[in-house]
């Protein structure tokens, strides 16, 4: 029986799992000062042992990268080295208040500055900000910078962001959030920007183009220089979505391709743990001419002293309280330091080798829409011998084989898309086992399709009813009790 | 090959042969020659574990942490005690190395954790629904403001109390600038509380919401029922930016008629970490749930009718709705959210009240003792929670410098908020009477 008791159901009146010293000063009573106080606070009451068992048993219902292969395309689920966690917990680095005087945090500022330099080097950008909390947050900061650039040049009318229809969902959502009008252009059959479509979409209102390279089909945009030329000639700027940086470290740099602004996803490329959905980190990089618009403060070095410089009058302003997800930056620093230049290049080479190795074998059993050397990921489109089998069923059946499913139904331009990204930290043996599973599933799809339709069979819960969840809308324990009554 | 990469050179050869090529370079032929990066990236390493530990120890030695300096700094980030069970739980690989729970059948641990967090936050705030968390308090605040703007046709401005945290105000200004939204800052009265008479002069038909922080940045407990009344009179949404610890004592905003509660969840068991990662809390009424940004988990059934959890109402989100999504947010601060949940569970009903009460009692004690030195004057006489501002008769900068040399993070210099000569001091349950007395003695010596 799978553990699924709620902590509220384990509550025993009067129990607790904390200890505090006795109060050593007179107790105040805010009621005396006419402050409205609460009568009830119905939090669960459990002992420490009960607490630990609850969370441990819950954790066992999770798949994780430490348990097995996570071939999620666009997510770069690589191994999270353990030393990163140790570094992030060093008391002298972790127990710092964000408003401590700069003189008391020179060590941390030096570390962050070094990280900025590494990121600038990998990307070919000139200046960095570590402030954005996630990839989408980095995108937003980057697009605000583009808007600011046009605004200060008196080009307020430039309010259009162009992006290919193969783009990540955050791209259009971010552009809208930054106050832009979004124009999606159809990509060509390789998911690349269709140059003619692009030219047709450009007018005097162009602010910029958002692009991922390699694109979301895992293919390198070979004519990127031409695209950059077209956009720059029309007065626009180029934004680079760094989701796929794991393919090109030490091989090619966005800054050299003509991009003006970009973000990294350190939880993808630089191995910081995904934590079940966050926290991540989305540092941004810009070319020199956009540095004045970076969010404040900008971390700088002057005469062997590190400062947080707020004196940027043209800055877009604050994106986030304080200086970003510092604890995550410590982990990214740790990773890059343990990899070094050669390690990073190795990582990209092995990530690309693994992807091509898999693509080469799987295209025999699964439809491969584009037959071309891929980068760190590739997209399949259904089983050859069983065209009616849905990708959802394949994904769910994979769970029975002990693997996480790939990214499914993305990119939107490929029907029944299944996007596979192995990363460099998986062994050939793992890849072989995973491919055997996919081949076995292709066979099952023909011989015993019910195995797929009813999958998964061996997971902590069976297939979950999403429609019921949206209809019943039980979002809290209280909702649940109300529903039962 | 690097130690994190399991493929050997022999295996590389085997794989290349399998693909039908002879070198790795052939896998990169699609990158135009002139774009290929030549040479080595200027990044040192690869460092061994021992080298990296030495290097980071050296960085740490150039800092002074809150182990070296007794912390009376607050201003939105608080040195509350973090129960030890928290790190044990979040160090489990199953939690910290898992991905976003898109494949529900193998992510019930994370999904249940989110469902419990939503339930805990709903209880704490007295609201009906909470999302799975956002980047931080500032992010939750601006997202709440945008929600209010999206809820009112033709709205183009919001009201924000001057008592809001300056960094949160900063973020609101940034986001609103790029959306052509006007932000009206409502001044504080002499007693340190938001001035609703002044607010009445600023509000208009296109105003969407009013946001007030409670206790506010200067430590004053605000009159939330007055904000709710003002919001109702002017057809605004009321947004209450709270300190979650204060809700161990103070009335739940949900019971006061507030529309949206936002907060930074740092104080719920998250370490200081020099400003992040923390989590942003957002809670509201069920009628507004479809406008809510961020992830949500619902209870449902699996194919056998057993209890199961799953991400729900995803049609609000960017990966489905693209440029029509409620927000561009694509993640939650899942691990920090787990921290906050464990914190609330460990403390339970009794513990959160005790942390709040001890913090408030100690803050009151220190304020009284500091005023008794004769070197400070009270700025506001209104009720306070765990933080207060004082006017110092000498030079605040000098005082803070001196305190640092004596081993204290003495407080936040309010000169940066245009309040020359004022100091903001926070006290948590962690501070002992002995530490506070030593702080007062140091102030005496330095004044």
SSE order of chain B: HHEHHHEHEHEHEHEEEEEHHEEHEEEH
Distance, first to last CA of chain A = 25 Å
Structural class of chain A: alpha/beta
CATH architecture assignment of the largest domain in chain B: 3-Layer(aba) Sandwich
Strand content of chain B: 5-15%
Which parts of chain B are unreliable, with pLDDT below 50 for 5 consecutive residues or more?
Answer: none
Low-confidence stretches of chain A: none
The pLDDT mean of chain B sits at 97
User: CATH topology of the largest domain in chain A, which one?
Assistant: Aspartate Aminotransferase, domain 2
Strand elements of chain B, count:
15
Strand segment tally of chain A: 12
**Radius of gyration of chain A, in angstroms, nearest whole number:** 25 Å
What global shape of chain A is seen? globular
The name of the CATH superfamily of the largest domain in chain A reads Type I PLP-dependent aspartate aminotransferase-like (Major domain)
Bin the helical content of chain B.
25-40%
Strand content of chain A: 5-15%
Which structural class should the secondary elements of chain B be placed in? alpha/beta
Along the chain, the helix and strand elements of chain A come as HHHHEHEHEHEHEHEHEEEHEHEEHHHH
Q: Let me know the average pLDDT of chain A.
A: 96
Shape of chain B: globular
Largest sheet of chain B: 7 strands, mixed
């Amino acid at each position: 029986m799978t553990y699924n008791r709620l902590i509220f159901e384990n509550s025993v009146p009067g129990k607790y799992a904390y200890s505090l010293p006795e109060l050593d000063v007179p107790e105040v009573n805010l009621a005396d000062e006419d402050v409205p106080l609460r009568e009830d606070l119905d939090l669960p009451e459990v002992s420490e042992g009960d607490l630990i068992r609850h969370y441990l048993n819950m954790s066992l219902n999770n798949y994780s990268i430490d348990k097995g292969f996570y071939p999620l395309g666009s997510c770069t689920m690589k191994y999270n080295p353990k030393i990163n966690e140790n570094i992030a917990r060093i008391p002298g680095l972790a127990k710092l208040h964000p408003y401590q005087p700069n003189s008391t945090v020179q060590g941390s500022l030096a570390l962050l500055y070094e990280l900025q330099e590494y990121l600038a080097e990998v990307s070919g950008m000139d200046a960095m900000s570590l402030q954005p909390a996630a990839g989408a947050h980095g995108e937003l900061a980057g697009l605000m910078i583009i808007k600011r650039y046009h605004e200060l040049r008196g080009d307020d009318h430039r309010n259009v962001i162009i992006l290919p229809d193969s783009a990540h969902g955050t791209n259009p959502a971010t552009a809208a959030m930054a106050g832009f009008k979004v124009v999606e252009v159809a990509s060509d059959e390789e998911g690349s920007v269709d140059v003619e479509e692009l030219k047709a979409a450009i007018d005097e209102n162009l602010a910029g183009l958002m692009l991922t390279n390699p694109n979301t089909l895992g293919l390198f945009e070979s004519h990127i220089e031409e695209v950059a030329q077209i956009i720059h000639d029309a007065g626009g700027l180029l934004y680079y979505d760094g989701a796929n940086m794991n393919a090109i470290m030490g091989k090619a740099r966005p800054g050299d391709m003509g991009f003006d602004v970009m973000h990294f996803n350190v939880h993808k490329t630089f191995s910081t743990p995904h934590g079940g959905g966050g926290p991540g980190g989305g540092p941004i990089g810009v070319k020199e001419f956009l540095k004045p618009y970076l969010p404040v403060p900008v971390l700088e070095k002057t005469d062997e002293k590190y400062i947080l410089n707020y004196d940027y009058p043209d800055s877009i302003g604050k994106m986030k309280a304080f200086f970003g997800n510092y604890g995550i930056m410590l982990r990214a620093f740790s990773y890059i330091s343990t990899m070094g230049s050669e390690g990073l290049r190795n990582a990209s080479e092995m990530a690309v080798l693994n992807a091509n190795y898999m693509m080469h074998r799987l295209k025999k059993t699964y439809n491969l829409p584009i037959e071309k050397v891929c980068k760190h990921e590739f997209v399949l489109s259904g089983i050859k011998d069983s065209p009616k089998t849905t990708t959802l069923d394949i994904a769910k059946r994979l769970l029975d084989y002990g693997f996480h499913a790939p990214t499914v139904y993305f990119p939107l331009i490929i029907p029944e898309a299944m996007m596979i990204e192995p990363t460099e930290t998986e062994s050939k043996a793992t890849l072989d086992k995973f491919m055997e599973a996919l081949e076995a599933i292709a066979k099952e799809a023909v011989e015993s399709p019910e195995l797929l339709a009813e999958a998964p069979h061996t997971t902590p819960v069976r297939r979950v009813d999403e429609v019921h969840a949206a209809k019943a809308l039980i979002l809290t324990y209280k909702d649940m009790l109300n529903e039962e009554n | 090959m690097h130690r994190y990469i399991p493929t050997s050179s022999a295996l590389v050869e085997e794989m290349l042969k399998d693909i039908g090529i002879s070198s790795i370079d052939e896998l990169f032929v699609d990158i135009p020659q002139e774009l290929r990066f030549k040479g080595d990236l200027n990044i040192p390493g690869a460092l061994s574990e021992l080298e990296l530990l030495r290097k980071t120890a050296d960085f740490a030695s150039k800092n002074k942490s809150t182990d070296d300096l007794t912390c009376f700094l607050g201003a939105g980030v608080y040195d509350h005690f973090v129960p030890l069970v928290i790190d044990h739980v979040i160090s489990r690989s199953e939690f910290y190395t898992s991905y976003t729970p898109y494949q529900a059948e193998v992510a019930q641990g994370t999904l249940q954790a989110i469902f419990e967090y939503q339930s805990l936050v709903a209880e704490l705030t007295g609201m009906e629904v909470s999302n799975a968390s956002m980047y931080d308090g500032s992010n939750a605040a601006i997202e709440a403001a945008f929600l209010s703007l999206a809820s009112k046709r033709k709205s183009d401005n919001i009201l924000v109390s001057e008592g809001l945290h300056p960094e949160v105000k900063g973020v609101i200004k940034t986001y609103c600038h790029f959306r052509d939204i006007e932000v009206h800052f409502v001044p504080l009265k002499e007693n340190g509380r938001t001035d609703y008479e002044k607010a009445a002069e600023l509000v208009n038909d296109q105003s969407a919401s009013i946001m007030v922080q409670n206790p506010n940045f200067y430590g004053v407990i605000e009159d939330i029922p007055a904000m709710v009344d003002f919001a109702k009179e002017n057809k605004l949404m009321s947004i209450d930016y709270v300190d979650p610890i204060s809700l161990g004592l103070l009335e739940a905003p949900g019971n006061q008629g507030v529309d949206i509660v936002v907060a930074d969840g740092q104080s719920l068991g998250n370490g200081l970490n020099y400003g992040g990662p923390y989590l942003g809390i957002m809670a509201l009424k069920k009628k507004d749930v479809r406008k809510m940004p961020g992830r949500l988990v619902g209870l449902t059934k699996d194919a056998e009718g057993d209890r199961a959890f799953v991400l729900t109402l995803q049609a609000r989100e960017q990966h489905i709705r693209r440029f029509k999504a409620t927000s561009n947010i694509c993640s939650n601060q899942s691990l920090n959210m787990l921290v906050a949940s464990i914190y609330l569970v460990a403390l339970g009903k009794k513990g959160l009240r005790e942390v709040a009460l001890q913090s408030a009692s100690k803050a009151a004690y220190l304020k009284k003792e500091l005023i008794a030195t004769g070197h400070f004057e009270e700025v506001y006489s209104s009720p306070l929670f765990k933080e207060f501002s004082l006017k110092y008769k000498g030079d605040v900068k000098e005082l803070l410098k001196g305190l640092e040399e004596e081993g204290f993070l003495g407080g936040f210099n309010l000169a940066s908020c245009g309040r020359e000569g004022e100091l903001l001091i926070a006290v948590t349950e962690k501070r002992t009477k002995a530490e506070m007395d030593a702080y007062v003695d140091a102030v005496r010596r330095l004044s």
